[in-house]
């Protein structure tokens, strides 16, 4: 029996079915990849050499992480996980929290998608009973998670996503804390750098077309007048855009002397390629989204070298005792021989300090109850951390532990991130 | 403003040629078998990922990696027809629609597991330093892509009109029962057309990888847009589909250039709806409806 195809009779129907099918395929792909990826990577309480103080042995206190474990910003998730785990090892080896309970990290992948992040946060709090939810790199994800965090009264601890509205939100009481940058403060920092170090009086904004881009647009517009800088153009682009030279040409024609970039690694790299197309040698001062992926690989080394961007910490140069300790722990646990092996370093540094602050809050609260724990964040003892010494890092007025003085400017050197030499 | 649009048109032509290549894949199988492989988009990704793996990860030279990739794509296409399309189409069911879409999702997730979910850059000397065309920077690859698209379209034209194989294709597309009676192996030709279509998709994936970067999800939107191009073109002949693909690429690129990146898909798909409303059979549909 030979296979004899039917006559064609279904032209329009095929089209409509096909379109509907492909549409649902995209939706389905999102869903399947949500459930398709490893649902969790639960770390059991790490074994530790029974030295020093008594090891924590009680019932573990679970802490959740919702971050980009896979996808274009996967490096950020890896880096955050490392910082958290290294801190947890230290804390558990020193007796844990709340009088002997070890910490345990439960990880969920948000794949940089807000809907997945929200579902993961709810699942972590309701099913896994986590005391705190740590957030990842993507501001849209963290912003979307705020609702569930406040509904379920569980503290959120941001370690990367910088949108102003995450900590400065409209919730009362406010459950969002952060040991990371805050866009508004970063925008001030970058604007001043563009003006005073790059001598720009006219800047162009190149922003990713999402809530994080908007968060920074507001910040830049607010701070431009402070330094008498004129914003000559605001151009937005999408994650998948491969050529934005038309937008950049508009900025060039408008006389932009420096570009302020807000985007993650892959789209940020496309923007640098478009600059190469235009042969426009203009300083680029960037927010730190580009450090969450393989920016130098995607943009090309030469282009990557032209970018100056912001970080909260550098493992290069003289390290404090905490810095040395973290470096040796990273080497021991993950085989990272030195700062050049630590990719996406802000994730590690912020997470490390954030985890210690959370542990202090747990012990302070003596409970994993959300409202009690939230109050405890306002009454933390002084903590000598990696990034700085934290003296009352959180107040109800300011739930960001880091401020402008804690930011540093860096650039790429190969795929390493090194401080800018003035 | 007019001058500003040239680079947009050029990069639109480049990406549009890719839509065209993939869309021709839809057209070929539809002409011969009345079925389509809706995992075409996934095969764009398969082409790029395989070539990346051979060439970059395992260090094979390009001249070996490219034909090897195309060969695997062809074999996969034939397998798709045999196992994913034929069992349904034989019974007169339209379930091949869903089964090929499902295959695409499986392929995408398999790539996430094996290749990884990170976006990787495909280093290519053709996409590093731009050359100046009419005073605008264009990557040499963006000039090469339309040329390859044109060559493929010409090759198909020759294949379909000048060879015995082409005559068979034409016969099957006009009337499979009669073709069968005069001794054409319809089954083999249908399998061949699927192989040809995945080769097109794989070729498009390899060509575009240095520009869009390589990732497991790179093909989804490309496949959808190519399908739109195939429908706008009218599924009638490869030339119409190719032209529609290039046209779509230019329209969306101009939209992004004129109104900003947020408007690329809005304008692009609005045009698709507009064209279909005015010409339900596509731009080049009616006249050559029975030809390959």
Helix content of chain B: over 70%
What is the H/E order of chain B? HHHHEEHHHHHHH
Lateral strand order in the biggest sheet of chain B: 1-2
Termini separation of chain B (Å)?
A: 40 Å
Q: State mean pLDDT of chain B (0 to 100 scale).
A: 88
- Sequence of secondary-structure elements of chain A: HEHEHEHEHEHEHEHEHEHHEHHHEEEE
Q: How many DSSP helices of chain B?
A: 11
Query: Order of strands across the widest beta sheet of chain A?
Result: 7-6-8-9-10-13-14
Most extensive chain-chain interface = A-B, 60 and 71 residues
Q: What fraction strand of chain B?
A: under 5%
Helix content of chain A: 40-55%
The value of Rg of chain A in angstroms is 23 Å
Number of strands of chain A: 14
Plain-language structure description:
The complex is a heterodimer of chains A (422) and B (292). Chain A has helices at 11-36, 74-93, 114-126, 139-151, 164-167, 183-196, 211-224, 245-253, 265-278, 295-299, 301-304, 321-334, 345-365, 370-376; strands spanning 61-67, 103-109, 133-135, 156-158, 176-178, 202-208, 230-237, 258-262, 284-286, 307-311, 383-384, 389-390, 408-413, 416-419. Chain A is α/β, with parallel strands linked by helices. In chain A, strand 3 (133-135), helix 4 and strand 4 form a beta-alpha-beta unit. The longest helix of chain A is centred in the first third of the chain and has 26 residues, at 11-36. Chain A is globular and about 65 Å long. Chain B has helices at residues 5-33, 40-57, 62-89, 96-114, 140-162, 164-174, 176-181, 186-212, 219-233, 238-259, 264-278; strands spanning 131-133, 136-138. In chain B, strands 1-2 form a two-stranded antiparallel ribbon. The longest helix of chain B has 29 residues, at 5-33. By secondary structure, chain B is mostly helical. Chain B is globular and about 60 Å long. The chains are: A alpha/beta (422), B mainly alpha (292).
